[in-house]
Amino acid sequence: MDDALLMVVLRWVHITAGVMWLGLLYFFNVVQVPAMRAATAEGPAGAQAIAKHVAPRALAWFRWASVATVLAGFAMLGPLTPHVLMLRPGYAALGAGVWLGLAMFFNVWAFLWPQQKKALGLVEATPEARAKARRLALLVSRVNLALSFPMLFLMSSSYLLHRPLAAG
């Protein structure tokens, strides 16, 4: 495959997976959390249906979209990765966006998913542990929501701020 075509494919995968990842992040925070509260207020059956049928499927797409986004992003960077990660001149905006994205990725896999498994009853947990897990998952999700805005700004504007190393 020609290098230009490969870059187009990688960019397409990165953007598409990123849209899926962030779209689900926004869905969880803007739609599902209030819907769970409303469903719980109407009776446990509605909230249980969301927790059993919608949340696990959406969370699977959410987690794996984060993996595809990060892998495609690093594949696109290729040999520029050290310059970007070290925030070298000309790459600082993109690098800051990458670091925010990596923090979000880490939050998904190290904090959010373990708590969501407890909160949804996918693993054994006491009612107290499930309640605590729901609260922690919400907090981590809100942190990722907050991080997504500067991350998107830096990623989407970095090409305007980018100066190749040779020009610097």
Strand portion: under 5%
Domains, number: 1
How much is the radius of gyration in Å? Answer: 19 Å
Total strand segments: 0
* Terminal Cα span: 31 Å
Largest sheet: none
Q: How many separate helices? A: 5
Give me the secondary-structure category.
mainly alpha
Shape: elongated
Share in helix: over 70%
The low-pLDDT segments are none
Could you walk me through the main structural features you see in this protein, from its secondary elements to its overall organization?
The structure is a single chain. The chain is mainly α and 168 residues long. The chain has one domain (3-167). The chain is 85% helix and 0% strand. Helix 1 (3-42) packs antiparallel against helix 2 (44-77). The two termini are 31 Å apart.
